[in-house]
Target: phosphoserine transaminase
Amino acid sequence: MSNTIAIPQSMLPEDGRFGSGPSKIRGEQVDALAAGATTLLGTSHRQTPVRQVVASIREGLASFFRLPEGYEIALGNGGASAFWDMACASLIARRAAFGTYGSFSAKFAASAASAPFLESPVIFEGDPGTYRLPEYVDGVDAYCWAHNETSTGVAAPVRRVAGSLGQGALTLVDGTSAAGALPVDVSQTDAYYFSPQKAFGSDGGLWVAVLSPAAIERAASVEQGAKLDGARRWVPPFLSLTSAVANSRKDQTLNTPAVATLIMLENQVRWLNDNGGLDWASARCARSASILYDWAERSAYANPFVTDPGARSHSVVTIDLDDAIDANRVVSALRDNGIVDTSGYRKLGRNQLRIGVFPSVEPSDVTALTQCVDYVVERLGD
Model:
């Protein structure tokens, strides 16, 4: 006898993808790939057709984030994890301070701690489910944290540390699971960087950064002239932010990119801007997130993991389930019915669901998801 719980077709969401990254890719993005099959895919990224795609991405993101004067959009290969190493190589002069409150915010701090040419970072650590911003420290030249902690569903403020401008320090904010979904004033940062496999609905392997003039000047200083202890720092070409900026200004990347990723990203940026830009996208994500949080607070067996409503993410929602309900069984039953990628972050180890509600996700599908979870939980003991 089958143990599969069959959810009625009428209850299912139109699209069952709720991943926190990789996330849902819209059909129109796939259509854009097909349209570019003979004119873009398999062609040189240094020739006009692909460079026009990159130019559109840079112009579209400049509009989307309302770039302050002098700020630039740069991009390169490797994803946000590569940008952490790039920041260690090109943006942190001597010492950084980090706010860490989950797996991903801690990884950048770990990269800085392992860099032999940097002093030990100052770590301000918060418990999972909360956030902790770095505080002013003498001698620090970069303050770093994540706008959204993907592993826990916590959103943190984006604002410069008091006094940091006076000490000439940079503000470096990881926007990977926030960019395109949460409101942000990029003037409060010097590098707001992200990968496109979240709100921008593309594939990974690419990083994008909103850079201030101060960040670009810092990279040039570190790479081209600054000496520490009498020795010039070796910056591998792949990790040179100066090189990435120079190539971005030509609407290309230093190394060969995945052209398919660029095509899908360009289509998503145009779609977001056509619908109203960041204001529209963040409002849409807030609506979807509120559906989940409200449902969990009404539920007899579910609760939002993040207890502070002001810290709850509107892009990645984490919901704890009662210990009597095995989240793994719920996730498995949902997957059997075509609803995928709802499991909690593995290293967090909680009995919970984690739901990506990026702009491509229809709020009506989020409502359907809550109804499907209720349906599954009611029948788990049958």
Notes: The mean pLDDT is 96. The chain has two domains: 13-25+277-381, 28-273.
